[in-house]
User: What shape does this take?
Amino acid sequence: MYAGTAAGGFSLGMVAGGLLTAIDWRWVFFAPVVLAAVILVAAIALIPREAAPIKTAGGFDLGGALTLTGSMLLLVSTVVRAPDVAAGQTAVTLVAGLALLGLFVLIEQRVASPLIRLGILRSGPLVRANLGAVLLVGSFVGFQFIAVLYLQELRNWSELETGLALMVIGIDSVLAPTLTPWLVNRFGNGRIVFGGFTFAAVAYALFLPLGADWSYAAMLPTLILLGLAFSLAYGPLTIAATDGVVEEEHGLASGVLTTSFQFGSALGLAVVAAVLAAADDLTVEGFRSALLVPLVAAALGLLAALPGLTRRPAPQPAA
Assistant: This one.
């Protein structure tokens, strides 16, 4: 249900984003503020109140939050700015990002209530799920950026036409809550994640021969396969993230996975943008070079999902 709802939001967002941009591109940034305010009011009115939790000693790990966030921002910025700045500046931001990451680890080892208990990272399924999350979302966001630029800048499609063209990827809003649970119960979580990355890799490979006058029918197989890939991989990755984690730390595992999804989207976009920026103009050849980024990421996702192929599905209780 979570994956299906997310997919439905994606499909709606593609069309809404095209409509808003056609009016004025600034609305793309302002409309979410209005929507978030409406959701906040609705949440206060509709979500049942719960008893206040018992306070624990140690407080909030502010140092860990600041160092981890700063590290991710610097690392992504390093990739984005690499084509436009001197090598020395790239090295400085890279070292600074890694230094902050090292400082984060030291802080987590010493504070009473760490933001992330580092021992949870000993869980192999959790680590593989987070690596898969980075690669799945990173590859897709990178591909989406390429596809939008290709359709609008090279093919002169309108914002609404582009949004409608990509909306077919939202097919997973139907498949994720219906077909995927049955497949997971039948074949096991790891195999379904592997199948999702397989579809993603094939989808990106099929888009590599894109031309300056490609028809929508030539693009459609890639878009459909990406919808299938997300329906198979996105939800099961959230299941894999809590596999082997004690119930009391399911919330922590979920938070780490969400961070990986967000970091993956930023990193994938940064790498693709850097490859495109290295070219003088937006050409078919430049788009093909950038498409190698999501293709390689999907291939790495296949490698990360390989250990899950040997895991058997958990037995289901009798009806």
User: Anything to note?
Assistant: Confidence is low (pLDDT under 50) at residues 315-319. The chain has twelve helices and no strands.
